[in-house]
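Let's sit down with a protein and look at its sequence and fold side by side. Which protein we use is up to you, so please pick one and set it down. Label the sequence line and the structure token line clearly, so we can match residues to local backbone shapes. Go ahead whenever you are ready, and we will take it from there:

***
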Amino acid sequence: MNIYYENKLPDDRLKTTRLGVPATLRASIAADSVRRSG
């Protein structure tokens, strides 16, 4: 099921997903942390 879902993603998203957290998601999380800390 997971493999089928990942295969539908673009290559870039697929590569980052294999490494762990996608770069875009990491960036948004970092931005949220900065906003919360003030």
